Amino acid sequence: MANVSPFTPAVAESADRVTVHAIAPQRVVRGPGALQAALPRLQALTSRPVLLGRSPAMAPPRQALARQLHLPDTRQLLLHHDCCDRDLLRLETTIRHLQADGVIALGGGKVLDAGKLLAHRCGLPCVAIPGSAATCAGWTALANVYSEAGAFIYDVDLARCPELLIFDHQLVATAPARTMASGIADAMAKWYEASLSSGHSQDALVRQAVEQARLLRDQLLLECEDALAHPGGAAWRRVVENCGLTAGLIGGLGGVRCRTAAAHAVHNGLTQLAPCRHWLHGEKVAVGILVQLRLEEVVGGQPLAVVARDQLLHVYGKLGLPTSLADLGIGELDAARLDVVCRFTCREGSDLHHLPFAVTPTQLEEALRFCAQPQPIPAQVPQPVQPRR
């Protein structure tokens, strides 16, 4: 938040450390009509694919694609839950039985994650076709695994990004506006998390990723209202691509420490509570950013975190994003539920520990309580907070 950060990097960097980056899909086809334009590339990549989906809302484009590819019903596979182990095992067995030579995933972030993970396990190429701009899951070499009930369990680093990403503006435009607002929050989190966890990095790629995250945040703040007000317009096109593509590139360049920190760790903790699970990923991340800013203010001693929080509250109000835990249905935080969230968020290996300062469960509990009830939304947008240096 401030021009000068008092924080010391949580993990010292080594000048001779070898790192491996899965930066981007091999091919990205984007724009209106991208799905039709990409069919020759898709068919050259796989001749016996399976087509993975879940949502009834995405059934029409799935069926249209299946007809174009002449896929029989046996090769159209449906998830029964979010990306969960039982579904993955069932579908992996089916894919191997069918002797498929590729996985096409068309839908939301959890469908895309499942498709990437199945392709990874079966050693097959993956084609990702996002149905919305709610996440950058179509880009990344990462998959999140949930319980059958929808609670986050663990994530998996994959060997590579999808071989082909098809980002069709006409398909994305069919998604509810809520999904784009969710994607905006998730994409903006790249800056709030990466600048804190990696702002002092001396690694060239990481520094580029952090700077790109700052630019991404600024562009989204400037254009998010115009994009929502004018679907299909120039601002809309830039915003959906920022959410679905650029945010993924930042994680690819910078690696895990440029992907997630406290905001996503809080998201993962909140999924342990049933009332939160029907909210979109980015909506929970939006509240997670506010919790992280409270931790920065109180634990990290960053007074400008208050300015950043006021700025976000104003933007959230304009976008219809949740501004508190109460908006997510858990305003009344009893000790048992708080304990569940805090224990999971603070567990060993949590993204929370990418912060450059230690956070205890008690400190996290205070931050959650602070963000439990709606905060007053500022009438005026505060001045943008300058990047950390």
From TrEMBL:
Glycerol binds at D186, H264, H281. The keyword Oxidoreductase applies. NAD(+) binds at G109, K110, V111, L112, D113, T140, L142, Y146. GO terms for molecular function: metal ion binding; oxidoreductase activity, acting on CH-OH group of donors. Its cofactor is Zn(2+). It comes from the Bacteria. It holds the Pfam family Fe-ADH. Residues 25-168 form the Alcohol dehydrogenase iron-type/glycerol dehydrogenase GldA domain. This is Oxidoreductase. InterPro entries: ADH_Fe/GldA (IPR001670), ADH_Fe_CS (IPR018211), Glycerol_DH (IPR016205). Keywords: Metal-binding, NAD, Oxidoreductase, Zinc. The lineage of its organism: Bacteria, Bacillati, Cyanobacteriota, Cyanophyceae, Synechococcales. Binds 1 zinc ion per subunit. SUPFAM superfamilies: Dehydroquinate synthase-like. Belongs to the iron-containing alcohol dehydrogenase family. It comes from Candidatus Synechococcus spongiarum SP3.
